[in-house]
Amino acid sequence: MADIDLEDVEKRTKEEYPDINPDLEVNTDDLVVVKEHSLEAGEKVFSFILLIVGVIALKLSVDLWFSISLRRGPRIASAAAVPVFVSALWVIMSLWTVIENFKLTTPLSHIQGMGEKIMRALAYALPLNVLIMLALIVAYCVALVEGVSFYIATPAFLYISMCYLTRKDYVKNILWTGIVMAFIVLVFRVLFSVVFP
Asked: Fewer Cβ in 10 A, N or C end of the chain?
């Protein structure tokens, strides 16, 4: 096998690709991102919560299936068979996820105290924007329960939310709020005859 003449290759490369400047090429080694942990903070707990909710759903669907079976006899084709199947599948898949997740590490794996882990997971899962939006949603729901008209509470909630999230275009947000409200009223109130609170 003949030796490759590097100078010849470099010369031909410059002739074929005159715009390439090796001095300006990006070193791809600097761009490699190594993920230290395979899971995010709180992901193990979330999968465990999914398992608990799945078990509750399975119990409720089995109770429904038995209550229907007492009247008509146990049948696989009953209306409660689908919820039992879906919730059983949910439990199996979430149990598998919990088992697999506990083999992996998270950014919180090295922290010893449970209180510190909980605080860091909550800080990761609930940043300031999420907490403020949750507070706005709760305030909106309380306003509706306390008797504030839907036609007052909803535009106020929409406008405040848009202004907070964008932090600009305050006048344009009034237009967007009007468009959204018009759509809600036309589709739900006029077309589907939904009674708003």
From this structure: N
